[in-house]
Each structure stands twice: as C-alpha cells, then as structure tokens.
Amino acid sequence: MGTEVYLQDNSVETDIKLKKFLRGEGADLEALQDKKLKGQLAVREVLYGKSAKAAVKAEKWLMPTEGGYLEAEGGEKTYRIKQLDIGREVDVSSLKNQYDIVLPELGPYTLDFTSSGRYVALAGRKGHLAIIDVKDLGVVKDFQVRETVHDVVFLHNELFFAAAQKKYTYIYNWDGTELHCLKEHGAVLKLQFLKNHFLLASINKFGQLHYQDVTTGEMVGNYRTGLGRSDVLQVNTYNGLVASGHSSGSVSMWKPTTSAPLVKMLCHHGPVTALSFHSNGHLMATAGMDKKIKLWDLRKFGVLQTLPGHAKSLDFSQKGLLAVSTGSFVHILSDLSGSQNYSRYMGHSMAKGYQIQQVSFRPYEDVLVIGHSMGWSSILVPGAGEPNFDSNIANPFGTSKQRREKEVRSLLDKLPPESIMLDPTKIGTVRPVMKKKEKLTREEREAEMEAAVAAAKSGPTKKKTKGRSKPSKVAKKRQEGVERAKRPFMEQLKEEDMSIKKRKTMSEDNQLLPKSLQRFARKKTT
Amino acid sequence: MKVKVISRATDEFTRERSQDLQRVFRNFDPTLRPQEKAVEYVRALTAAKKEKMFARPFVGAMDGHVDAVSCMAKNPNHLKGIFSGSMDGDIRLWDIASRRTVRQFPGHQGAVRGLTASTDGCILVSCGSDCTVRLWSVPTATGMDLDNSSDDSTKPLAVYVWKNAFWAVDHQWDGDLFATAGAQVDIWNHNRSQPVNSFEWGKDTGISVRFNPGEPNILATSASANLLLVLEAPCPSDRSITIYDLRMSTPLRKIIMRVVLATWKLPFQQFEQCLETKTNSISWNPMEPMNFTAANEDCNCYSYDCRKLDEAKCVHKDHVSAVMDIDYSPTGREFVTGSYDRTVRIFQYNGGHSREIYHTKRMQRVFAVKFSCDASYVISGSDDTNLRLWKARASEQLGVLLPRERKSHEYQEAVMNRYKHLPEVKRIARYRHLPKPIYKAGVLRRIMTEAERKKQDRRKAHSAPGSMPNRSIRKQRIIKEIE
β-strands A322-326, A313-316: how paired? Predict the structure, then answer.
C-alpha cells in the first residue's frame, strides 16, 4: 500500500518533464506510404517514450545533489540580503567560496572558467596571467607577460589557454610555456572558444572576426564585420553562433562558413556595451549606452523585457539567473517561477574604488566571481548553478586520467565548422516533399489578370513639368502600363490555346494510327 | 530567511581507494548537451570508419586435405568440431579452436559427396560416388581434445552398398532416419543395410536433400534432369525442387524452375535454349521452419515458403557465378553462401543484397559453407583443399567482453544504424573491396539486365495495353507448381 503512494506521480508535472526529455514532436507516421518503415518507426517512437519516462524517473529519484535557494521571510526582500547575512546561515565549506583577493597594481581582471568550473584563468590588464584551482584556491601557475592583456580564454581543458595581448594572441600551457603566437588575429580585444568545434573566435580592434581551428591550426574563417571596432563578443552555446555588439547599437551573429552575418539586429540606440546568452539558446540579454538592458527572444527576434540601467558586463547562470554589473555594483536578476519575467533577486556592492570589469558565474556552483580593478572576488548566489553534473560532460572532481580520456573522446566528437547553423535541430530532420505548384484554373488566371490591369490603371501617374504632361501623353503612358501588366497572362493564354488546338488536330487525324506512329502522320493544317 | 547553497562533499564524489571504481554521475538534461544531434552524426560517421578499421574477418585456414573439399557437416552437440569430406574420399574431423585435424575417417574410394551427423552427434553418415553409405562413430568431446591420439584412423561402423552413386545425404533432426539423394531419394535407418523407403519422380537426379528442422518428416530435394539428346523426344531439361513427406508415399509438391530464352523450330524438332536454373543446395531457416532458401546456378538465391510455392518470398542477388552452397545461421536471421566465383557472401534472411563479402587470393571455387552453431563464425571449404574460418561479423571483438566494452559496441552500432541511410555514412558502411574480375563481372551483369529490362519495357510500350503483363522476378523463375 505504501509503495503505491510513492509511485503515484503528479501527471501534469511528469508531462512537462516528459516534454523536456522528448525533444520535440514525434514523427508523422500517417503520411508514410512504406509499411516496413512505418512499422520500424512506430517501434522507435514507443522506445523514445519509454526512455523519456525513465529519464524523468531518474531525475526525480537518482540525483545526488539538490539545488540552492534563497527565500525571504516576513517583510524582507531578497535583494536587500547581504553576503554577510548569507554567510552566517550557510555551512563552513560554502563559506570558503566567499572571498576577495586584492591585487591592486595589475589592472582590472578578466576571467574565464573551464567547463567543469574547477579552474579559472585570470588576466590582469597590466600583464598578469594566472591559473587558479578554485576548489582550494591553489595557484597552478601565475606569471607576468609585461604587456597589456585584453582577454583570456581556456581552450578545451585547463591545460591550454589563450591570452589576447597587445599585438598578438598567444596560446600558453598551464606551465606558463608559450606554445603559439597567433599573428593573424591581430590586436584582439575579445576571445571566445567554441567547445564542440575547437574553434577560437576573436574580434580585433579593426572589427575583424577570425575563426581558427586549434587542433589543426587552420584559419577557418576571417571576415570583416564592416561595423567598426567592437569589444563585445559572445558565443551562443546552443547553436555555436558568435554574436558581436557594435557601436551603432546593432548585434550581428556570425558563423565560420559565411562572410555575411546570419542575423543583424538593431538592439540599442547607442553602442552595445554587454551581451550574454542563456544556455537554452532562446534568450539573449543586451545592454547599451542608452541606459537600457533588454531581454530578447531569439525565436521571434523581439524584445521580451526592457530594464533600466547601465551594464558593463552581463552573464547568465546555468539556472537562468542574470548578473548585471555597473561601476562597483552587481545586480542579480531572476525569473521566479520560470516565467521569463526578470526581477531583482540579489545585489552586491563593492567599495567605491572597485570598478567591476567582468562578472562570471561559476559552473555547477552557486557562486558568482567578479573581476574588478583591484583584483577579484567571489560571492554566493543561491540557486545559480546546476546542482547535478554529468561525468561524461564535465566533472569538477575529475582526475588527470579522466581528463586525458575526455580530451581524446571530445576530439573524436569534434564537429566540423559546417555544422554551425541558426537552428541546430535541423540536423536529422527529413526535408518535406515539395508539393507541386497547383496550376490555377482559367477563371483564376483571368481574375488575376483583371486585378493586375486594375492595379496598373489606378497606379500613381507622374506629373512632368514644362508642358511634358499633356493629357494625350498621360493617357498613352497609362495604356502602356496596362499592356505591360497584361502581357504575361496573355502569353500564358496563348500557349494554352496552341496546345489545346494541337491536341485536337492530333486526335482527330491520327486515331487510325497506333500511338508510336502518330508523330509521323502528315499534318493537314498548322 | 531560508538559504541553501549547493555544497558537495568531496568524498561522495571521489573514490576512497585506488582499487575502487571511479564514480560516474549522470544528468540527462538536454540543455547540458548543446548540438547533440550534430555530435551524434559525427559519432555515426566515426563509428562507420572504426568498423571498417577493425574489420578483420579472416581467422585462419585449416589445411590437410589433398584434394578439393566437397562437403562439410556440423556436429550439433559439439561447437568446436566440424567434419569435411574431399574429392578423393578423405573425411576429417577438425578442431576449430586449434585448427587441426582430430580424426581421419579413411575408406571412401571416390569423392565424398555428402556428410551429415546424427542428432545426438554420435554417428557420422557419409555418402559418395562409389555407391556406398558409411556410418562412423564420432569420438566424444573428451576424446576430441586429444589431438595426438594413437588411434588416428577409425573403421566405419557400417558400410552399405547400393545401386547408384549418391549425391547428398541429410539426417533427420529429431529421429534416426537419414535420406540420400541420387537417382532417387532413399530413406535409410541406421541399422538396415537397405533403404526403408524410396521416392522417385521423373527422370531427375537429386543433387541435394535437406530435412526440415521443425517438422521431422518433411524434406526438400533439388533435382536436375539428365541431359537428353536433342534429337530424341523433344523433352526440355528441367530443374526442380521437390518437397516430400515421409508419411506419404508420393511427394507433396514440386516446383519446376526454368526460363526459356528462345525457341526455334525445325521440322520434327524443337530446340529450346534454357537458362541454367539448377538448384545446387537448399537450406531451411531453423527459426522459421516453413521457409527455405535455394542456392541456384543462375547466381541468385531464392527463398520460398513451402506452403505457398508459386512465388518466391525473396530473391537474393549478388553473386556473379553459380552459388554452390548455402547455410542458415542458427538465429535464422542471416545465411551464408559460397559460390563458384571464389567468394563467400552473407545475406540477411529478407535482404535482396548481401551485407558482407569475403574473398582471398588463395581461396578458389567455394564448394561448401557452414555457419557455426554459435552464429559467430563461418567456415568455407573450397577447391584449393583448405577450410577457412571467418568471423560472421567482420569487426566483432572476439573473446570475453567487459560490460563497458559491450555497451560501447552496442552504442556504436545503434548510432551508426540511426544515420546509415545518409550519404556519407552509407558510402563508408557499404564499401567493400572486390577483386577486379568480380567487380567487372558484376558490372557486366548489371549492364545486361538493364538492357534486357529496357527491351522488355519497350516491347510492352509498343504492344497493346494489357497484352504483356508484368511478371515479377519472384515468379519468373517458376514454370509451374505440381502437386
């Protein structure tokens, strides 16, 4: 009896969750003619349903960790809660994630995490490069390059990272050894790495976009954006597109195989200052100098929400929280109850002199790391990270042996640059059979002709000066317009009449001859 | 204020000792896997390439015979052993694992035409063109493992001499009768020196006989008529497949297979040019015992349902020369054929084309093939006096697989099957290297059939509509079915 209670699922909830795992609609089996294929596909559809149900059950019962949350009690609001208050309530091991590292001389810090969230690469503007293991705050390697460093990004794992220095981009080992100097990219302002494709994307101070394959060293694409200097570049992990924000207020999205942007949207009245993509690929946040932060739906390319305020840096967390930073404040917005209506969730202000350069959520942890002009800090944001990681995708507790295996496996799964497209679900779908264009009936065609003639007659007539618009000339011009509109329809009608006539003559004369000899029959009349 | 932050205890997620397995955690959320379809496609492509890289089907050759291998037999009780008979009368029992002869059975004076083992695996029956049937006692399993036994040659249990040369022998699946094919089909008992029963239909010589695995009293034979001189009675040579029931005195059903290419008349005589449609061998599907497949001289194999013989269930085309032998896998899902064109092919039971082809420079005309009883190996006996052992699935990893290895193989196969119809994956998966003569012969056959088809289409287009009905290839070969 007791087990029945546990096994009874709330069917509405499970339906929603099932939809998530089913990944779209099933195949339309009614339209198939081939019975063998129909049978095979029907069996497969049943299997998919079963596997989705098993995934829902696994998600409900088998996940080892639970997510974080922050609930305000009484009259208080969550965005008034300070880090110190949170720190008092939380356990000791999580307190270790709240710290400020003060490095005042070496400039504002930009940072990048590995996909597992275990290692962070830091770059101070004045040339300080460091890899830090954030689990125990141990420094793996830090060194000085004595040049301006604009950006740093990890390659496929923590062993390699790329730094955009004053003149060129360099790739370093985690020992600090310089492996490569990438001269073709030029003076890069922003770097991004496409993990599935092993492509290093960069935008330089002349507005040129470069894509380089880091496994073979081949330059896959090299395009001029044509929109000037830009230092806003983000990759949309859902479909692999790279979006850049420009000083004209437009955001353009690029793929390595075409020289023109796939999408160019006008987002702001002033220059775009920050950009970030949600992990589901449908939501984009942009911030501009026109004091607005906009949330866009990328399916319809329309604004979902506009919020007031400046933003130097934007970042979405794995669970959909949005961190906005200006000056020395960080605001964290969240869509409570999943309704894509973002409101203030938490805030954190640093001391006045600390100018925040970049905010970045740590993957799989409820932590936000802030890189600023006096070093870097880490604060707790409950509910930001995905609590349950998948060992095959990213393992924060991975050993070096597992890292080596993963590197080989991800190289085998490396996607070709042609697989980047606006809608990644198109792969594996069946192109629908093109329906033959239905021929319009004669009446419909005549109706079309009448419509075209009427349009030509009622169109605007140009009035010419100096006595050139005499009524007779205007009437002639109008008649010519009508003839021009009629011509294609007349040609069609003529062709049809000819073919009907031909068929008639053929059938009359040649009924006596067998079909194969009909073409040799002498034609009486034309 | 209620707060909770994600906190993971390190020892829950790492292993305690180095002897433990590493812990694996799964989260099936699709948002954690961007571009999963493209990754899956790349994996399918890689799986197809890996399958080709690991395809090493040839395991080994067993040599020992002095003359061509003419027939083989499986021992139903012992996986590791196989019997083979050659054209000079030498019968050997091989141990497949070590690829060596365990026992020899000398005695036949001429070619050994048929070999079969009884249901309990104790008795081996052999028949030959010296008009004798010999029964041998098969050494037991423990005896088989002793390779260098002193008693290497054995005396037959019984020798039965009869009137005519025998062409094939087969043992009942669930009884103690065996049938031989020669001038007529004889049914024998182990203990009688004369056939218990005899069937005859027309002037045909039976060249192969097979008992039905499901129904112990039903057997199928294929026959080829003796070639008669044209100047005599205008009797066309016919090739037939006949189904007998032991409990009845007359055959059950017979289909005559022949295609007449051209006829021309002279006074009092009529010539007919016939296509060779002699069936060299038949094999019943052990999982669907009503179906059998016939290996034909016209390079095709025809599958029939024995209850409805007017139409072939499937035509399996890929060989370029006569198909000499055929054997079904114990799973009933595929069968192996050996042909005169020096190749061994594996077909799906319902597939029109072969899924695998095996060939070697040293393997000449293949006269006998057998699928091993565990469905993993294929053994071929050929003209160059060797038996060859091949893997049934060319890229299979032999031996004991760890569970993770097995899962990985299953995943690779599944992901490749999902995308196997797409052009890039199909091109890699379908590719097989063919020896030049076979490739050229295949191209030539295709040109010829295309030309014939076009001519047929034109004849139909230029004749009165309805006067030339479409004859499907499944029915084409059958002239008539006789009860």
Answer: antiparallel
Report phi then psi at A40, rounded to 5: -65, -45
Element (H, E) at A202: strand A199-204
Of A238, A390, A425, the CB nearest to B27: A390
Max CA-CA distance within chain B? Answer: 114
Main-chain dihedrals φ then ψ at residue A493, nearest 5 degrees? -60, -40
CA atoms within a 13 Å half-sphere pointing along the CA-CB vector of A80: 7
User: How far does B215 lie from chain A, in Å, by closest CA?
Assistant: 30
Query: Are B34 and A67 within 8 A, CB to CB?
Result: no
Token pair of A414, please? 């490396």
Predicted confidence at residue B430, as pLDDT, reads: 93
Q: Which residues pair with B208 in a beta bridge?
A: B222
Q: Say if CB A325 and CB A317 are below 8 A apart.
A: no
**Structure tokens given for A219:** 């330059």
Closest CA to A389 of B370, B343, B27, B467: B27
Q: Are B39 and A58 inside 8 Å of each other by CB?
A: no
Choose among B22, B23, B35: nearest Cβ to A196: B35
**Taking 50 as the threshold, does the pLDDT of residue A451 lie above it?**
yes
User: Residue B227: what pLDDT?
Assistant: 47
CB contact under 8 A, A390 and B40: no
Q: Where are the alpha helices (DSSP H) in B343-480?
A: 403-418, 423-430, 436-461, 473-476
CB pairs under 8 A between A and B: 141
Amino acid of residue B333:
R
Burial (CB count within 10 angstroms: exposed 0-12, middle 13-18, buried 19+), residue A80 = exposed
3-state class percentages of chain A: helix first, strand second, coil last, to nearest 5: 30, 30, 40
Contacts of B26 in chain A (CB under 8 A): 58, 62, 390-392
pLDDT at site A505: 78
Q: What angle do CA B464, B467, B473 make, to 5 degrees?
A: 125
E strands in A225-352: 232-236, 241-245, 250-254, 263-266, 272-277, 283-288, 292-297, 302-308, 313-316, 322-326, 329-334, 343-349
Number of helices (H), then strands (E), in chain A: 8, 29
- The whole-angstrom separation of Cα A133 and Cα A158 is 10
Q: How far is A526 from chain B (nearest CA, A)?
A: 28
Question: What's this model's pTM, rounded to 2 decimal places?
Answer: 0.83
pLDDT in tens, A353-397: 899 999 999 999 999 999 999 999 999 999 999 999 999 999 999
Which ipTM score applies to this complex? 0.81
- Give the percent of chain A with pLDDT over 70: 96
Long-range contacts of the stretch A295-299 (C-beta < 8 A, 24+): A295/A340, A295/A342, A296/A265, A296/A267, A298/A236
Restricting to A residues 31-60, those with a Cβ less than 8 Å away from any Cβ of B are 55, 58-59
| Distance of alpha carbon A469 from alpha carbon A474, whole angstroms | 6
Q: Which residues contact A313 (CB under 8 A, 6 or more apart)?
A: A274, A323, A324, A325, A356, A357, A358, A359
In DSSP notation, B169-185 reads EEE-TTSSEEEEESSSE
- SS3 helix, strand, coil % of chain B, rounded to 5? 15, 35, 45
Burial (CB count <10 Å: 0-12, 13-18, 19+), residue B82: buried
Q: Which residues contact A296 (CB under 8 A, 6 or more apart)?
A: A265, A267, A283, A284, A285, A286, A302, A303, A304
Residue type (1 letter), A456: A
pLDDT along chain B (483 residues), means of 10: 91 91 91 93 96 96 95 91 94 93 91 92 91 89 52 77 91 89 89 87 81 88 60 50 82 67 48 64 94 92 89 92 95 96 95 93 95 95 95 94 95 93 93 95 94 90 82 70 66
- Does the distance separating the beta carbons of B30 and A238 come in below 8 Å? no
Structure token digits, residue B178: 């065996």
Q: CB-side exposure of B311: number of CA atoms within 13 Å?
A: 5
